[in-house]
Write a structure and sequence with these properties.
4-stranded antiparallel beta sheet, 7-stranded mixed beta sheet, pyridoxal phosphate, Aspartate Aminotransferase, domain 1, PyrdxlP-dep_Trfase_small, 402 residues, binds 4'-deoxy-4'-aminopyridoxal-5'-phosphate, Aspartate Aminotransferase, domain 2, 14 helices, alpha/beta, pyridoxal phosphate binding, 44% helix
Length: 402
């Protein structure tokens, strides 16, 4: 059976990347991996989760925990999120909150909600590759979202018009972005709001790493700044996507979206059609764990990840040859490295795995136009200090030898 002949056209945009295939080789224990952008499982609040699941499954609560439930999400968790959002300037109501299976699902729904094939999505060059994967299924045209440059709203609009397209949203991760680790300052956030206003498009604010700030001063979320300008969430064009994956644990798959009611109502319909609702027992457990220890737990993560970041930055300083540059993130999990023009991250990875046993993600995967060959993403969240020092020393040796 030639299944590919009957697959829908959208599948043509959804290919397994060569890089992902390479990264499958990373399970070997002798490899030092800076590739996976994942939290350290040793830091999960496991005892709290064990207690929370046990409590969710008592005779009084098991019917709620294990039965079908509402698509919007478990109300106590939505209320807890409303409280957290208020702390960062996003005053909302539970009707503005949809619980999703990780923020990845919110990205998928937002692609489905906004994109007709050929519509324009503005994304960073580079941007989170999982967002590109989610949006690709809806066959968009991408244009480069460039807030530090001189691109005007008119240039985005003209580019879209020329392609017979309309700009539907700008997607970005303003704090400690995946993959660059960079944070957008307040001026750029305001500029983004102005741009979206002129273009009449939505903003998708992916806040996956927002809680993981180790130093420097917090910048208000884009949605908080917009709310400050407009006074009511119902007038805001920004959709905020949060997740417990980086703070509590990714395996429970609990994220959320906050937006004006028409957006949330439509996302609820998409959720009903896709998976009815997010796992209730997991939502109940996450709610209980968050109530029990969220702030203290996040504080503990800060201490560990901050030191790992510092060790990585110091090692890069010590071992990288001339001509190599990297970001100095104030939070999150990633350092983004730029090598001289002509360097090829994918080829370097193959060589690195063979000769130095160090893994990273070649940067090209994060570019909608396949550029960025001379870049790579290094994650510091899941390696101990000795491994970070040794891995960066080996990487420096490799880069000096090419
Ligand atoms: N956004 C960004 C920027 C991410 O890095 C990730 C996870 N790698 C996600 C969203 C998705 O995370 P989750 O679905 O686990 O919430």
């Amino acid at each position: 059976m030639q299944f590919d002949q009957i697959f829908s056209s959208r599948n043509a945009r959804m290919k397994a990347s060569e890089i992902r295939e390479l990264l499958k080789l990373l399970d070997q224990p002798d490899i030092i991996s800076f590739a996976g952008g994942i939290p350290d499982s040793a830091l999960f609040p496991t005892d709290e989760f064990a207690e929370a699941f046990k409590n969710a499954l008592t005779p009084e609560r098991q019917a709620m925990a294990l039965q079908y439930s509402v698509s919007e999400g478990y109300m106590p968790l939505r209320e807890w999120i409303v409280g957290e959002m208020a702390k960062i300037g996003i005053v909302c109501d539970p009707v503005n909150v949809l619980i999703t299976s990780g923020s990845q699902q919110a990205l998928d729904y937002l692609g489905k909600l906004f994109l007709t094939p050929g519509d324009t999505a503005l994304v960073g060059w580079p941007t989170y590759l999982g967002a590109l994967a989610a949006f690709n299924a809806y066959e968009p045209r991408y244009d480069r979202l460039s807030l530090k440059g001189k691109r005007t709203a008119e240039s985005y609009a003209a580019g879209a018009a020329e392609a017979g397209s309309a700009v539907k949203f700008a997607y970005l991760s303003p704090d400690f972005a995946n993959p660059t680790g960079e944070t957008l300052d307040r001026t750029c956030r305001l500029q983004l709001l102005e741009l979206a206003e002129v273009l009449g498009c939505a903003i998708i604010e992916d806040a996956a790493y927002q809680s993981l700030r180790y130093d420097g001063e917090a910048v208000p979320p884009v949605l908080a700044l917009e709310l400050e300008q407009k006074g009511s969430l119902e007038d805001c064009r920004t959709v905020y996507c949060g997740t417990f994956s980086k703070t509590l644990a990714p395996g429970v798959r609990i994220g959320w979206a906050v937006a004006a009611k028409p957006v949330i109502s439509q996302m609820v319909l998409l959720k009903q059609a896709a998976d009815l609702h997010t796992s209730t027992v997991n939502q109940m457990a996450v709610h209980a764990v968050a109530e029990a220890c969220f702030d203290a737990h996040v504080e503990q993560l800060h201490a560990v990840y901050q030191r790992r970041r510092d060790v990585m930055l110091a090692a890069l300083e010590e071992h990288m040859p001339e001509g190599v540059d990297w970001t100095r993130p104030e939070g999150g999990m990633f350092v983004w490295m730029t090598m001289p023009d002509g360097a090829d991250g994918a080829r370097l990875l193959a060589r690195s795995l063979e000769t130095e046993k160090v893994a990273f993600v070649p940067g090209q995967a994060f570019f909608a136009d396949d550029s960025g060959q001379n870049t790579m993403r290094l994650s510091f969240s899941n390696s101990n200090h000795a491994a970070i020092k040794e891995g960066i020393a080996r990487l420096g040796r490799l880069l000096r030898s090419v």
